[in-house]
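Researcher: Dear colleague, please comment on this protein.
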Amino acid sequence: MNLEWWEKYNDENLTSNLLKLYENNYDLKNAALKVKENEQAVKIQFANELPQIGLSGQLYRDLRSSMQQFGSMQIPSYAQYNYYLPITASYEVDIWGTNRLRIKSMKQQLEIVKQAERATYIALTSDFASDYFNLIRADEFLAIQNELIKTQKEIVSKVKDKYDIGLCSINDLLAEQRILTTLKEEYNRHTKTRDILINTMRVYLSDSSANIARNNYNNITLINGIPSEYSTEIIENRPDFLQEEANIKRIGFDVRVAKREFLPKFIIFGQIGLNAYHLDTLFNSVSQMFSAGVLPSIDLFTGGRKIALLKLKKFQYEEALNNYQKAILTGIKDINSGLVEYKEMQDNYKQSLSRLNMQKQTYSLVKDKKDIGSASDLDVLYAKEAYLMVKKDEVSNKINSLLSTIGLYKAVGGVDLYKLNENI
């Protein structure tokens, strides 16, 4: 889960929720089960390489109702029991290394599934962390929106007073009332966003009634010092790249297996056991049996199946090479896009913070002017409202900056961004 990276956000609620996600999420559990399933598949393939030994006892009764002729000798009809207890062993001599190649192919399939599990961890933890910070943004937006509605109500009240004494037109009053309704609609949208995020995160945690503990917006900190450039070699950390690399090796082994299907097979077989017609003689020395031999076999005609299989595997190998090249390009694109977004979000936050400070100064100046009688209460309310609108931009850009670090972390394959910088 790479908890060390998530701890860099200095948010105990985030790490606590991620631990619950790790323990309870059904997608993560299924991903782990997929790995275990494929581990058993490798063991099954390895078992096919070993000798096979089995006991297949038989008890049956022959009923011969007609005369049987063996040359000049005739045997009349008869009935008898037959007790047959052989231990049979067989082993395909892996002269061409076919079985070994199949095991190597299965191991590469296991590696693909392991990388799929890793990709699931990266995706789920990143998506959950993104929703977590979006939820904090929704909380802060609701708080600001409440303050905006409160301020706008005061504005409407004062404009109505002006209208009542004939200092403004009805259009001015209606305009302020429309702004109030717009602010209330926006409040409803933020409420909807918050509720959707909470329900989504509860699904991640596999708990429909979970209380999503979260930090206050004012206590969250930005991730600083992330390098702005990386080596292209970091795509080798991405699960999709490692999956395609393992897939090339897997199909390469399958191609070699398909070629060896044209060669003859040699099976060593043998039987040892007991064969008697009477139960009381079953364990006598005369009832002992033994046979052994080598069975060579080769398919003389299969209707073109083997040729078609070989061509199929070769086509799959070319397809895997194309997917491998595409994975490289996709990885470079995702990382470059993540870097561009990170730089942009960092710069946007700095600009919005600067704009917020300027608006705060403007608001303070208007209040000072009111104190000396150079501004009205409406001027102060309008300045406050403008400050709150800019505050929303600052909140949005700060959260976007955090989300850009999560996106970059996901793009590089779930590796600590600071450690990547140390390795360049």
Notes: Residues 3-51+98-263+305-423 form a domain with the Outer membrane efflux proteins (OEP) fold (CATH 1.20.1600.10). The chain has one domain: 3-51+98-263+305-423. Residues 64 and 115 are 64 Å apart (CA to CA). The beta strands are 52-55, 58-64, 68-70, 73-75, 78-93, 265-276, 288-297.
